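It is worth pausing here to work through a concrete case rather than discussing structure prediction in the abstract. The textbook approach is simple: state the sequence, then state the predicted structure, then interpret. We follow exactly that order.
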Amino acid sequence: MISSMFKIGEIRNRGKYKQIWQSCAGCGKQRWVKLNKGNPQSIRCHSCSAKLQGKDLRMEKNPCWRGGKIKDAYGYSCIRVSVDNPFYPMANRGYISEHRLLMAKYLNRLLKTEEIVHHLNGIKDDNRMENLVLVSRRGHSKWTYIRTLQERIRNLESGRIK
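Step two, the predicted structure:
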């Protein structure tokens, strides 16, 4: 346990500033607190300070809450799921890609990691069921190849490529 490693009042240097090991005045949780002119910057932890101000910072009560829907680094829509959701085992840090969640609900089962949900039109946030197809990794590369060929044909027909 971390509290047995440090003594209350112990001070450490952290680069340009110092910290002191102390207990929260609200819940008693021990943590490092930044020193400001020799005094602790705060006497309460973040959650106790928020409660004291009448703020509940959990999910939908947080002012930054956006309904549990985010875009991941690849441009896919992701939805927050709770631990009691039957599809939670497919989640990564509490979020599931929306297209994978929709396909899992449609099939009424969890998707395997080797199963890929492919967007037929290539638009990552178009999650209509008629636009989604479940394929293997090998099958996914075929779909991608077919889409590339279709784009080349369209470009040739429109006269963009000679």
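Step three, interpretation. DSSP finds three helices and nine strands in the chain. The mean pLDDT is 84.
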